[in-house]
Amino acid sequence: MSRRLLAWYSDAGRDLPWRHSRDPYRIWLSEVMLQQTTVEAVIPYYLRFLARFDDVHALAAAPLDEVIDLWAGLGYYSRARNLHAAARQVASAPGEIFPDTLEGLMALPGIGRSTAGAILSIAFDRPAPILDGNVRRVLCRLFALEENPRGSAAEKKLWAWAAALTPADRSHDYAQAIMDLGATLCVPRRPACPRCPLAGLCRARVLGLAEKLPLKAAKKAVPEIMRVALLVRRQGEVLICRRPYHGLLGGMWEFPDAEVSAGRSPDATAAELAARWGGAEVQSLGAVRHAYSHFRLDLRVYATLFKGARRVAEGEECRWLPPAALSEFALHGAHKKALDLVAGAG
């Protein structure tokens, strides 16, 4: 199986920026960015990160807020915090070198078994199974796995299959080949089975199940939350504040906001928020909707004029900025969408 896959990869493998190096730092950076994110989205961020942080020591020495600001727009922001923490861990370790064992890599923040396996295979050319989304789909079809691929029993089977198929030699090429197969041919919808190098070995194709596998897990209900965001204006500037570094959207910027509690209206919540931030009457600017990983947000946007002093709480980081400068800051999803309403409000 690996011979067929590697022969195909030699001709059809993708030319990606991180494939021109075996540097563990660059491989690690790319693998973390690629977690739940497409190659097309990752490439410009990867190049910008390397231009600013050309090695793990440069990243470790940078302030966290700079790392988060550079990450803005790539999503799943805990990855940026973990990236920074892992860089500092590597830079402070004896010898200041990247771990070259599965256990050592998994000891770094944000590195699970599959990411560690990818780094070990690609950077160090050591055989280690990987099981990212693309590989999981390939294996589910190759072995016609007709059960929830995220269930504990299926997970054990998939890891066992991944380990059994990983060759002892050319681990670097094999890891990238099987990921490329899932990304380019064995895609979620309308897989290109006639062009697949493993078509003759694929149980799902023989059984006519390629389009149906992997089985989809039952969708969980996603809660919807309503919040208000407040555009506080003062002498041609508006106020934004940085979220705490730990927790949801840690380190991102946003307008002052508050959740609309049960039984309360957005207007009343906005008025209370304005009073807390030294504002006057509020004016509704509109609404934006945004889906985060675990909830959907209905954000009602209001504006107010700053009328009085407000003390900044301890540990709170806020800035007054001209509206034209807001796009340069790492506003999180819904608040970034709200910029259109801010621009429309003048």
Automatic annotation (TrEMBL):
Start and end of every HhH-GPD domain? 33-184
User: In terms of domain of life, where is this protein from?
Assistant: Bacteria
Can you tell me which residues the record assigns to a coiled coil?
none
EC number(s): the record gives: 3.2.2.31
- Principal EC category: hydrolase
Which InterPro entries has this protein been placed in?
A/G_AdeGlyc_MutY, DNA_glycosylase, Endonuclease-III-like_CS2, Endouclease-III_FeS-bd_BS, HhH-GPD_domain, HhH_base_excis_C, HhH_motif, MIG/MutY
Alphabetical UniProt keywords: 4Fe-4S, DNA damage, DNA repair, Glycosidase, Hydrolase, Iron, Iron-sulfur, Metal-binding
Q: What Pfam families does the record point to? A: HHH, HhH-GPD, NUDIX_4
What SUPFAM superfamilies does its record include? DNA-glycosylase (SSF48150), Nudix (SSF55811)
Name the chemical reaction catalysed here. Hydrolyzes free adenine bases from 7,8-dihydro-8-oxoguanine:adenine mismatched double-stranded DNA, leaving an apurinic site
Q: Name one GO biological process term.
A: mismatch repair
Q: How is the cofactor bound?
A: Binds 1 [4Fe-4S] cluster.
In alphabetical order, the GO MF annotations are: 4 iron, 4 sulfur cluster binding; 8-oxo-7,8-dihydroguanine DNA N-glycosylase activity; adenine/guanine mispair binding; metal ion binding; oxidized purine DNA binding; purine-specific mismatch base pair DNA N-glycosylase activity
Listed cofactors: [4Fe-4S] cluster
Q: What does this protein do?
A: Adenine glycosylase active on G-A mispairs. MutY also corrects error-prone DNA synthesis past GO lesions which are due to the oxidatively damaged form of guanine: 7,8-dihydro-8-oxoguanine (8-oxo-dGTP).
Name the family: Belongs to the Nth/MutY family.
Name of this protein: Adenine DNA glycosylase
